[in-house]
Amino acid sequence: MSEEQNKTGRQRASSQGNRPKRDKAADDKRSARRAQQRREDELLLAESHEDETNYVGDRMSERDFSPVRSSREYRSGCLGGLMYFVFVVCVSVVFAALAWMAASDTLALNKETFTATVTLPASTFETKTVATVDKDGNQTGTERVTVANIDYVASALKEAGLIEYKWLFTTFCRMTNAEGKIDPGSYELRSSYDYRALVNHMRVGAGASETVLVTLPEGFTMRQMFERLEENGVCKVSDLMNAAASYQYNYSFLEGVEPGDAVRLEGYLFPETYEFYVGMQASSTINKFLTQFHYVWDADLQAAADARGMTIQQVLTVASLIEKEAAVDTANGVDERTRIAAVIYNRLNAGMSLGLESSLLYLYPDHDGPTTTEMLNTDSPYNTMRYPGLPPTPICNPGLDAIRAALNPDTTGEYYFTLDEATGQHRFFTNAAEFNAFVATQSYGQ
């Protein structure tokens, strides 16, 4: 080999040595493409290729070597997912807005500050019999409870602007058993009260109830007292009568006085000026009278009754007769109570009838004027014109002075008294002749 050829060979070797190394991965990819192309060509040029199958077992075709295209289902799936996401977001926003509105009403958020009066009449309440249970959950008996008409309460609050959503308030009340926590009455409620505060303030004694002062004078019968209470919006006469007849009051002085007739409490409703809640529950109203009597009837009065051998009811019955009969004008030094008490005891001890029209008129509360012959012939133990002894119950509710007079009568020999029309006071007599002679000089409304 010549020197020139050696030089040329060295240059070629040097040139080859300076070439960049080929990328093996790229070569493999190109080889794979060429192999696929050859198979396509063979498939197209072959006369018979029955033995050629694809991955699912079908005969091979040109389609098996075509590029894979993006799926239409895939594109629609992406769009559906996006729409579902938007829907979920929208629903979440709506529910969040509703939740905020509900929370704002329930918690009284962002409300204008004002005060409104809401009245819940006793007629909208219902009395139910419910079971009583002990701490272990065992039923021990039943009791009568008064429950509110929650729909009515919600409507009243809505009308007053104190709540926005009646359905939400009624739901809250049913979940918290609020129907038994609300009392009849008129209440001053603030817009800043949340649902729980509204329920708590619609109770007697909660501080939001409207109150009224009512004076019940000595000598009023139970019915007269109840009528005055109704006139002042405290409670209805019918509800008070029902409570007086059937409610069980736990006072020692009522021991043996069983429920059944409202008249059983006549004489025990102590006359006084009281502060009542408007729309007050009937049993609570009566309880106010009885609580006052409990404090009035102290140990000294009980000792005086024991000394005379009298029960509390007997003392109150005598005191009620005194209250109805006695003329009292303390400004002019007139107080007939202890003297009339003496006449009552003298006649009782002598076995005489008391002959007092006041006890007979108790049966005729609407009668005006003198007693009639028909009334005088009434067959009733309240007719002391006809029957001896005390009437079966007090005929009114006496005050403390009449009670004290019944326990501390004067000591006299007088058995008769009658009204002196000229003075408006009573004249007292020791015998029937003098009594009848004086009565003949009076007209007594004739």
If you had to describe this structure to a student in words, what would you say it looks like?
The protein has 446 residues and is α+β, with helices and mostly antiparallel strands. The chain is built from 16 helices and ten strands. Helix 4 packs across helix 5 (166-175) and helix 8 (237-246) packs across helix 9 (282-296). The protein has helices spanning 3-18, 24-45, 72-106, 150-159, 166-175, 195-201, 222-231, 237-246, 282-296, 299-308, 312-325, 337-349, 357-361, 373-376, 400-407, 432-439; strands at residues 115-120, 125-133, 139-148, 185-190, 211-215, 273-277, 328-329, 334-335, 416-420, 425-429. The radius of gyration is 50 Å and the shape is rod-shaped. It is 44% helix and 12% strand. The strands form five sheets. A two-stranded antiparallel ribbon has the order 1-4. The chain has a two-stranded antiparallel sheet with strand order 2-3. A two-stranded antiparallel sheet has the order 5-6. It has two domains: 115-295, no CATH class; 299-439, no CATH class. Strand 9 and strand 10 form a beta hairpin.
Provide a concise account of the structure shown:
This protein folds into two domains: 181 residues, no CATH class; 141 residues, no CATH class. The protein contains 16 helices and ten strands.
